[in-house]
Amino acid sequence: MAMNLASAKGTRRRRGRGGRRPMSEINVTPFVDVMLVLLIIFMVTAPLLTAGVPIQLPDSRANALPQEAQQVSISIDAEGYVYIDDQQVPVGGLPQSLENLPRTGEGPDITLRADRALDYGRVMAVMGELNRAGLNRISLVTNGGQSAPPVNSGSSDEE
Questions:
Q1: Using the 8-state DSSP alphabet, how is residue 20 labeled?
Q2: Which helix (H) or strand (E) holds 113?
Q3: Cα distance between residue 89 and residue 99, in whole Å
Q4: CA spacing 20 to 30 A to 61: which of 7, 134, 141, 148?
Q5: What are the distances in angstroms from CA 134 to CA 110, 128, 129, 130?
Q6: Distance CA 62, CA 139 (A)
Q7: How many other C-beta atoms can be found within 10 angstroms of the C-beta atom of residue 93?
Q8: pTM exceeds 0.85, yes or no
């Protein structure tokens, strides 16, 4: 800015052949702006990458399992709709969709995510279809490390 003021007053000096000296410092402000925008984008999108189907998982005190390379996530939402990864499966189309899954070796590891509001029969129907398709490596996903309600030795009706 001061350089422009000096040239406006008529005290401009000629330096070498070009008359202007190149600017030697780097303006990092645009770089910092871009990096902050990218940081905000990654902070917002990172939680969405873990699971695309919103589900209220049940609580459990179980330890976390390691993530496998060949893994397929099957989700059942509160209305009972089934999703393979993030794609909704048409009603009655689960057996065909399971047959179309790519398989190598022992087959893919299945992580089953089910909403806590679902009845047990709906979850067991999906697990039965998984078993029928030959996919027996199933992990049930819960909110790990939470304080789950205590497990009773018997039902409240028996007491």
A1: S
A2: strand 109-114
A3: 13
A4: 134
A5: 11, 10, 9, 6
A6: 12
A7: 13
A8: no
